[in-house]
Specification:
The protein is built from 1 helix and 2 strands; from the N terminus they run ββα. It is mainly alpha-helical. A hairpin with a 4-residue loop joins strand 1 and strand 2.
């Protein structure tokens, strides 16, 4: 390459002129420094992108986990409420059945009470008749 040729190497934010200084080696050092700078800048950019992507993935994972937890909690709550509803329904049915049996017994007792009274009063009348008859027949004997 001749020393009077001028070419331009463009970096990210700078330009380096290559030309007359090629013979003394300073341009080569500048190019190496620029390559190192570009590599470092590229590494920093990639590292930033990687950290940002990892942060986004972490947040997505956290949101997904929270959503799954909420679904499980809601499902458990629904199941518990259904259990309680079933338990309450069973208890209500049991109490209604008990109350029904009690009312049936009371109604039977009320229906049977006049019959018992008439039977007992009939028995008592018969006993009175017999006792009066035995008293009057015993008085005749003596």
């Amino acid at each position: 390459m001749s020393s009077d040729v001028l070419s331009v190497c463009e970096g990210k934010n700078h330009q380096i002129e290559i030309g007359n200084e090629i013979e003394n080696g300073s341009v080569i050092e500048n190019l190496e420094n620029t390559d190192i700078y570009d590599k470092r800048e590229d590494m920093l950019r990639r590292n930033f992108i990687f950290r940002r992507q990892a942060n986004i993935e972490s947040k997505l994972t956290e949101l997904e986990t929270q959503r799954m937890i909420d679904e499980c909690v809601n499902k458990r709550i629904r199941e518990e409420m259904e259990k309680k509803d079933a338990t309450i329904d069973a208890e209500v049915c049991r109490r209604v059945e008990n109350a029904k049996q009690i009312l049936e017994r009371q109604m039977k007792d009320e229906l049977n009470a006049p019959i018992r009274r008439t039977k007992s009063s009939g028995v008592q009348k018969a006993k009175r008749r017999m006792s009066t008859a035995s008293v009057s027949s015993g008085a005749n004997i003596t």
